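Private note to self, pasted from the team thread so I don't lose it. Backbone tokens:
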């Protein structure tokens, strides 16, 4: 078993990156996949969203990037069976300055993750809402990229820049990197704009867009305040069913489900 390492990336904030990371991890775990979440965002919302404090005295990803601490030593269990997390910390905001002069600054996460590639089925990297050195590390470590795209008017704005960054990382740092897909989030079937945005994205990107769309759903929004994914907060909600469907579609794409 070799882990599928997936970077969840979009430089725009509020598009559902962290929500996707948490709930896709839970859905994949429900489908009998073992998952490691890597919380690269200094805000640490992926950590708190699964009941793991981002400000405990325990070691975290800052220690991995700056001091070379082994990734396996900072991993914590979460509230979800088969989902572990490498937690973030507010000090992560200073990582770029700390490693800016290091020759290996772009591959530190790749080096750290390499030793765990056979311990999990999936490693999901929650990236910060910017194209900084942390994101470059994620693109260097990952095998593929998942792009959450909000069903709003400016959905496609900035996507071309992101795709260029992915191509740059592929050309210079990670020749194996591919776009796993684009997933539409916050879809409101009552809103004509959502339908129009979805149609436009599919027209431009074709098969790269997942069939599954994540709806606007109050249960998805409520679940993080309880430190749980929506699947364990309300298993029958539209949000839960959508993420289970996304997990099925992803497993099919990766040849892990017939």
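Design output:
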């Amino acid at each position: 078993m070799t882990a599928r390492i997936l970077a969840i990336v979009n430089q725009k904030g509020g598009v559902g990156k962290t929500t996707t990371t948490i709930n896709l991890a839970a859905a994949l775990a429900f489908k009998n996949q073992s998952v490691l979440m890597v919380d690269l965002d200094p805000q640490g919302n992926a950590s708190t969203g699964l009941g793991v404090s981002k400000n405990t005295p325990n070691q975290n990803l800052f220690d991995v990037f700056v001091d070379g601490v082994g990734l396996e030593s900072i991993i914590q269990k979460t509230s979800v069976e088969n989902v572990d997390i490498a937690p973030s910390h507010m000090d992560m905001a200073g990582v770029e300055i700390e490693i800016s002069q290091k020759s290996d600054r772009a591959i530190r996460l790749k080096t750290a993750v390499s030793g765990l590639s056979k311990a999990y089925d999936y490693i999901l990297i929650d990236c910060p809402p910017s194209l900084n050195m942390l994101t470059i590390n994620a693109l260097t470590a990952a095998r593929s990229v998942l792009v959450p795209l909000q069903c709003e008017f400016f959905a496609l704005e900035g996507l071309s820049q992101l795709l260029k960054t992915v191509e740059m990382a592929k050309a210079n740092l990670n020749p194996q990197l591919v776009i796993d897909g684009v997933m539409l989030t916050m879809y409101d079937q009552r809103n004509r704009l959502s339908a129009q945005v979805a149609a436009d994205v599919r027209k431009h990107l074709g098969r790269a867009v997942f069939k599954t769309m994540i709806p606007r759903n109050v249960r998805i929004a409520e679940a993080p305040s309880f430190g749980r994914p929506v699947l364990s907060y309300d298993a029958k909600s539209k949000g839960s069913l959508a993420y289970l469907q996304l997990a099925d579609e992803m497993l099919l794409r990766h040849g892990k489900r017939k």
